[in-house]
Amino acid sequence: MVPDAAAADEEKCLTDGMGRLQHNAFYMHRALDSNNLKDALRYAGQMLSELRTSSLSPHKYYELYMRAFDELRKVEMFFVEETRRGTYSVTDLYELVQHAANILPRLYLLCTVGSVYIKSKEAPAKDVLKDLVEMCRGIQHPVRGLFLRSYLSQISRDKLPDIGSEFEGGANTVNDAIEFVLQNFTEMNKLWVRMQYQGPIGEKAKRGKERSELRDLVGKNLHVLSQLEGVDLDMYKETVLPRILEQVVNCKDELAQHYLMDCIIQVFPDEYHLQTLETLLSAFPQLQPTVDIKTVLSLLMDRLSNYAVSSTEVLPEFLQAEAFAKLNSAVGEVIEAQVDMPISGVITLYVSLLTFTLRIHPDRIDYMDQILGACVQRLSGKTKVEDSKATKQIVALLSAPLEKYKDISTALNLPNYPRVMDHLDNATNKVMSAIIIQNIMKNNTCISTADRVDTLLELIKGLVKETDEAQDDELDEEDFKEEQNSVARLIHMLRTDDAEEMFKIISTVRKHILLGGPKRLAFTVPPVVFSALKLLRHLQNQDGDVNGQEVSVTQKKIFQFLHQTIEALSSVPSPELALKLYLQCAEAANDCGLEPVSYEFLTQAFILYEEEMADSKVQVTAIHLIIGTLQRMNVFGIENRDTLTHKASGYSAKLLKKPDQCRAVYACSHLFWVNEQDGVKDGERVLLCLKRALRIANAAQQMNATRGSSGHVTLFIEMLNKYLYFLEKGNPQITSSAIHDLIDLIRTEIQSDNTTSDPSANAFFSSTMRYIEFHKQKGGSVGENYEQIKV
After folding, report:
1. How far does the chain reach from its first CA to its final CA, in angstroms?
2. Where does the pLDDT of residue 535 fall: very low under 50, low under 70, confident under 90, or very high at 90 and above?
3. How far apart are CA 614 and CA 725, in angstroms?
4. What is the pLDDT of residues 367-414, one digit of tens each?
5. Is the peptide bond before 573 cis (omega within 30 degrees of 0)?
6. For residues 264 and 282, what is the distance between their CA atoms, to the nearest angstrom?
């Protein structure tokens, strides 16, 4: 309740003061209208006396001040008009207002008349300004003094004896203008700092907040300085900057030092900062230890970086000024001076310095590594950085070279790059690894040497290698899959046209991924296998010799590599994936004409089927994959082919469900009729498979009849389509009578009272019959096979 009561009292005080101010302003205007100067000045003095209050906070005082300011502008307009008419002498007015009873109203009126005095040009502007700035020393109350000097600055800013100004006097009057602004700035800063030490210790935080609200009053002086035409580079270097920095350093106030250093960087041109870099940077280590120097120094480096990229013409100036060496030294000195600076602040400085270097010296890799090395040195006492702000800054530091060069190769050339990354905790390390992979994918970067691949995979080991199993378990399954899929995509980007180097690359990749634990292998083994298969195809397209030299990487060596790599999946376990990869390798060996190798891979696939696959759905998928692969094989002799097809047929007939058995067995018929020129064409074996599948379909239909379902009628229709397929392909064992019998069987089953109607089966059968009719009408060589079929 106490703060509320105080706020209410303050509001009442402001309302009362505003009321008295308006009351006196009314009588002042009436006196001005009747040209009664004596009463006008008396009421103006009483009006301005309201600004003597100490009961208002700076925020509320500002409201009262602005109302008084508006009234004073009207008084100034009156004085200008009357002096122009000759009613009053400006010199007399200047003397007359100094008879006001209280010093604060007297000085406000004096500043107002002083503005008119300068405009009249009856006295040099420099003399009037010097007199005013000295007279304002009479107010030493911090708030009242600040607002008074702010008023002086406001009314004089367009009347300074600057170069090109109508108030310019002799040759050195610009020095007087600069001296006036600097003196006013110095006095205002002293008053601003003094606010912190007036009042109870318990209200220190409150005073800090109030001071923060008033900082722009002080900073405006620096803005006025920056706008002066006379403040050229030499003047800035010799006079302005040293005087400002002297005041900043000597005030020894945290808030003032931080704000004023920020102001200097913001208001003066970047060109000036570059040419006075050494002077400006020398002030940073002299600031109070509690000042947030990292923010200000980072701002300076960012501004210089932006200035550098604004035009290529300014880059030589940076080289001439040795900007990097000076900034690098300053960063080190600031970090040494502020021993309590948090690690996040240290890294922030290095991020800004690295950004600066990347823009100014993109060709100096040694500078970048020097910055990263300094960062490693600062992190040397810490195993892992756990502060979230610091880790974000480290990620920004490591990302900067990637964003600049759009090529991971540059980062791989920096010895200290992985050392910085080692200080990240596991979670952030993964984030950074993902950023690196995204950069490679986005820019389509190809890593083409085994050494670079080894360095890269070591860099992103957070995603590749097994670290903390508990942490992996906590990771969301979808996130984990996305991480590992990104690694898989990366592996496909590791390539070269040199066969020997490519084999070294995939060997290096396998060495790293085998350390990733069973959970990762299911994602990372397939891309390695397919990279090796791609290498095989590359070798096939060569004649065996390259430029007359023997190729050390042979097909046999690659197949050994593939066999060992797929065997690693046994620890997952992932028999379905391993089986698919074995079949891919068997097909590749077939294309290479290596019968024993192809037979071995198929054998491994059958072993997996027998020993690892117990689920019936998995078995169905696997046996169809095996059949499909075998059907494309042309490398086997009669004995090996018979062995493999017999195995496939046997496993097909042993599936758990009759429909699955039927479909797998009729799929086996394709193993005995291959449409290629030299392919197998054993019509009898095809017919045996189809008859066997038909018996299984009959059995399935009989088992299903008791349930009153026609679900397995579809099997007969599928069988009909197989018969038609082989009829078209010219298999002499497929007769029209057999097809007739099958059509009659299907019609009987569909019309049976024991089965319910199945629209999809009916549509399937109707479509098949239309197909037969179409070919009968079409005629030709294919149509001849259909002529004897009665629909």
Report:
1. 100
2. very high
3. 33
4. 999 999 999 998 887 778 888 899 999 999 999 999 998 888 888 999
5. yes
6. 14
In total, the chain counts a number of residues equal to 791
For residue 720, give both structure tokens: 């009909």
Dihedral-angle region of residue 47 (phi above 0 means left; psi in -120 to 50 means alpha; beta otherwise): alpha
DSSP 8-state secondary structure symbol assigned to residue 172: T
For residues 341, 345, 347, 352, the Cα torsion angle rounded to the nearest 10 degrees is -130
Residue bearing tokens 């020993």: 611
Q: What is the DSSP string of 713-734?
A: HHHHHHHHHHHHHHHHTT-TT-
pLDDT of residue 754: 61
Reading the block at residue 515, the tokens are 């350390």
Q: How far is CA 574 from CA 525, 550, 582, 618, 714, in A?
A: 11, 38, 12, 12, 33
Read off the DSSP letter of residue 34.
T
Structure tokens at 144: 């009242």
* Mean pLDDT value of segment 246-259: 93
Concatenated DSSP letters of 624-640: HHHHHHHHT-----HHH
247: left (phi over 0), alpha (psi -120 to 50) or beta: alpha
| SS (HEC) of 204-228 | HHHHHHHHHHHHHHHHHHHHHHHHC
Q: Residue 737, Cβ neighbours under 10 Å: how many?
A: 9
Amino acid 518: pLDDT:
87
For the stretch 346-367, pLDDT in tens is: 999 999 999 999 999 999 999 9
Cβ–Cβ < 8 Å for 21, 50: yes
Taking phi over 0 as left and psi of -120 to 50 as alpha, with beta for the rest, 578 belongs to alpha
Q: Minimal CA–CA distance to 52: which of 43, 60, 41, 61?
A: 61
Tens-digit pLDDT profile for residues 735-787: 989 999 999 999 988 887 566 677 898 999 999 999 988 988 887 777 777 88
Other CB atoms within 10 A of residue 676 CB: 9
Q: Which of 458, 488, 497, 7 is nearest to 206 (CA)?
A: 7
Provide the pLDDT for residue 471: 55
> Which three-class secondary structure string do you get for 44-103?
HHHHHHHHHCCCCCHHHHHHHHHHHHHHHHHHHHHHHHHHHHCCCCHHHHHHHHHHCCCH
Report how far residue 297's alpha carbon sits from residue 319's, in angstroms, rounded to the nearest whole number.
Answer: 20
Tokens of 436: 């690196």
3-state SS track over 346-370: HHHHHHHHHHHHHHHCCCCHHHHHH
Q: What is the band of 664 on the pLDDT scale with cuts at 50, 70, 90?
A: very high
The token pair that represents 726 in the structure block: 């082989």
State CA 686 to chain mean position distance.
61
Q: 121 in helix, strand or coil?
A: coil
Query: How many Å apart are CA 176 and CA 160, to the nearest integer?
Result: 9
In the 8-state DSSP scheme, what is residue 571?
A: G
Q: Give 310's Cβ-side CA count (13 Å radius).
A: 11
Q: 188: closest CA among 213, 161, 220?
A: 220
User: Which residue has 């100034």 as its token pair?
Assistant: 76
How open is the CA angle 284-288-292, to the nearest 5 degrees?
Answer: 70
Q: What is the SS3 assignment for 681?
A: strand
Taking CA atoms, 507 is separated from 162, 495, 512, 553, 616, in Å, by 75, 12, 9, 12, 36
Q: How far is CA 439 from CA 396, 443, 445, 509, 601, in A?
A: 14, 6, 8, 19, 37
- Positive or negative: CA dihedral 22, 25, 31, 35: negative
Spatial distance between the Cα atoms of 500 and 477, rounded to a whole number of angstroms = 37
Strand partners, 681: 673
pLDDT of residue 708: 53
Do residues 533 and 589 lie in contact, with contact meaning Cβ atoms separated by under 8 Å? no
Q: What is the phi/psi pair of residue 380, to 5°?
A: -60, -30
* Distance from C-alpha of 65 to C-alpha of 51, rounded to nearest angstrom: 7
Closest CA to 128 of 164, 81, 177, 84: 177
One DSSP character per residue, 643-710 reads HHHHHHHHHHHT-SSHHHHHHHHHHHGGGGB--STT--B-HHHHHHHHHHHHHHHHHHHHHHHTTT--
